[in-house]
Design goal:
Layout: H1 2-21, H2 25-42, H3 60-77, H4 83-97, H5 103-127, H6 140-146, E1 151-152, H7 154-161, H8 165-173, E2 181-182, E3 188-191, H9 199-219
Antiparallel strand pairs: 1-3, 2-3
Length: 227
């Protein structure tokens, strides 16, 4: 799966370069946005702000640097994350911002949006009681011990997508998740293939968010809407 994702991302970056060479700037910008959005989503750092930004297509060298940095970060988070990895993530967001009209404001807005998303997710989890949301309490060592599950429960899927358990059940009933089925106990089971990121990537992505949050607190809070 990781190899497939790597090939898809590489193809997207190469498509941006090809369209830029053909002077098809509008299509190049559209593919660039899609590439960045997917990249951030794979890192569990997705922000809707990207879709509202206007990008200037940089030269081929800059695009190659972005492409290689994207691949390097994904490779590192699939193994052991170090302080250097977090620095590269911040560099990546900064490089993305440099392609916009106001890099400093865009960089601040992207970081604020990412941290704001994490705060909302944390608040949603805190509102849940242990009986309402037991699956999200599973620790990574327990998950590794019992083996990565090939499916998600409705509570796990809801936490992953930021939706309620009831909404996920309705989506299962309407056939929104490929291969979703009911267990013998009547509970929905959703195959992992329906989601872009794996459990391990989600856990590591949350670690990245916590680290960025710590950096933000050290440097002073950023308000997503105070821009």
């Amino acid at each position: 799966m990781t190899a497939t994702i790597d090939r898809e991302q590489e193809t997207l970056w190469d498509t941006v370069k090809f369209l830029a060479k053909q002077q098809d700037i509008d299509k190049a910008e559209a593919v660039l946005k899609a590439t960045i959005e997917k990249s951030l989503q794979l890192l569990n750092l997705y922000t809707p702000i990207v879709s509202h930004l206007r990008f200037s297509i940089p030269d081929e060298q800059f695009l190659n640097e972005l492409k290689h940095l994207d691949a390097d970060i994904r490779k590192k988070i699939s193994r052991d994350i170090t302080e250097k990895t977090y620095e590269e993530i911040l560099d990546y967001i900064k490089m993305i911002s440099e392609m916009t009209e106001d890099p400093q404001v865009t960089n601040k807005k992207m970081l604020a949006s990412i941290l704001f998303k994490k705060a909302k997710q944390d608040a949603r989890v805190r509102r849940k009681t242990p009986t309402q949301f037991p699956e999200v309490q599973i620790k990574i060592d327990e998950a590794v011990k019992e083996g990565e599950k090939p499916f998600y429960t409705t509570s796990e899927a809801g936490h992953k997508l930021g939706l309620s358990d009831q909404t996920i059940r309705r989506m299962c009933e309407s056939g929104k998740f490929k291969g979703a089925y009911r267990s013998e106990g009547g509970h929905w089971r959703i195959p992992e293939e329906n989601f872009i990121t794996t459990r391990e990537q989600d856990i590591k992505g949350n670690g990245i968010l916590e680290h960025l949050d710590k950096k933000n607190q050290e440097e002073g809070d950023v308000d997503e809407f105070d821009l």
